[in-house]
Amino acid sequence: MEKLSNKALGKVIFFSVFGLFALFAGIAKADQVYTFNEDLSSTINLDFSQTQAVLINGKAFIANNSYSSAVVSAIIANPTKNIINARIDANSVIYSGNTILYYVSNNNGARWQQMNPGYTYTLDATGNQLRWKAVLIRNNLWDQSAYLDSVLITYTTGITIQASQALVAINDPEGLTRSVLNSLGIGFSAGNSANNNYAGANQNNSGSTGSVLGATIYTAGKKSAGSGSATIVRAPGQTEIYEIMGGKKHLIPTMDIFYNYGFTDEMIQNISAKNLAKYPRVKLLMSAGNKNSTYYLTEGGMIRLVPRKDVFDSYGDRNEDIIEVSKKEFNFYPRNQFVFLERPLNRDVFQITDGMKRYLTPMAVQRMVLTDEQIAPINETELAFYKTGKPIIY
Fold it and tell me: Domain of life, per the record (predicted)?
């Protein structure tokens, strides 16, 4: 076979990449992004069988003599395709002692997923019946009620790509080229143009260059550029991508965060599900730029501040078990407010807020529509640390 000249080869690569971009554009159209705006001036889209909040002049308030009230929508979208991810943005006023928790469901409320406003989340259920929910909570009955004015839901339908990947494609066409070429088994090197920024965090390793594909990775709570001491893995047939470091696995929650770290598709290695299961999960983390606060990462993907060292020690944790994550990843995680005592097993639920624990009656738990993923186990030392506040009865 005649060997192509460099010029001809360049043309082949150019038109191949151009074709791949065109192909990608066609594929991307299979996923559609939609928005839904609810200003609460009309109640036609609300489910009043589950809504206890008081609606006044297009605003939702906590009901009188109540610690919490929910605003729950009816089905606001019912596309023919699966709803794969969603983002909620809210216009609200939150006074001292108040909290608003937000949720989205893509299967008519069978599974509610808590979200922080302003972040896109991959939905872990399958469905095409979109609903949203907001739970307004106050610490004391005399506290002025927070109120919700409007919400904007942005959601994506389809199964071909995730919205976060589309976002990366727009902002990083070179990364998209690598991703598409590698998916076809064609190697591609970005040379020295690879950009491995770490979301603006202070670099402790200035002067360390690493390899072209070197990204910021972490070992025992310390980050190092391109050291190769962390491994990026994924089990065949699964979408979850993990970092293996210090003998533990850490789930990278979204592709947007994955690429934000400077990771590339080439770094992902296959691992069997059996071998992946042998690694315990990372449970402790701190945010870049704030090494004075350590947070517990729950199995439900939420974070809770570890209040002081004796609580930290009571779990048998070590400083080496703490990893540092970017501010982008840290802000992605919802906060864990609801707990129960793990030993002796007691399913009494408490709300932890402002250094205080407050017992929730079963009626209050039902009213807040709390799911198992939102209620995390804690030990006696941690529960005893918090001051006892007035119970939330309803």
Answer: Bacteria
